[in-house]
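Table S2 (continued). Query chain:
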Amino acid sequence: MSASIQEWFISIARSSNRWQKSEDNREVEISTVLGLLHEIDQRIDPHFLEISGDDRVSLKVDGQVREISQLSSGFTSILKLIQAIVSGYGYFTNENNIQKVKGVVFIDEIESHLHLSWQANIVPLLKKLFPNTTFYITTHSSVVLAQLKEGEAYKLYRDGDGVVKTKKIAAPNKAALADILKDVFSVDLNQMKLENSSADEQQDAKANLLRLLNQQEKE
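Corresponding output:
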């Protein structure tokens, strides 16, 4: 994943120079990505980007120059997501304030490659970074779903005729994770605990019976 991000930075940087027509100079895309990363983590220098002679891209993190390939997988996933949105907007518009562009973004299974800590914050983070963007997101993560407010979450299902329909999920942000798992994903944690407990008890009973039989044989 980091390789494609590096290629994007290199491509935009090489095509950004003071001799280009202003509408073709997309240095603003790099500036926007760096600025957004700084909003996410203030240790990121929003004004620093370095490309070595052998095409290694580096950012400055907490005052230290670090190659993109050295960033954590979770942060790299966030970087890739931000870059994809910015470059997508940059392709369709010559706006300089890309962050405030009005648009629609579709993200499939947003939890993919995101650690739980990022999953728990990704929705409000995107709303903050791109306030004029409407996001349509699919997810199988109860952690992601729990961030959504009334009217923001819908369950997709097929009816008897195979037609895909939607059912509103009432205020997931006010529900317990256990309830979300049960009502939305049909995963009943309490029932699973009971079943696992019963299975453990059966195993213990079998083990005790075997010990008794072994003792009787010895006697």
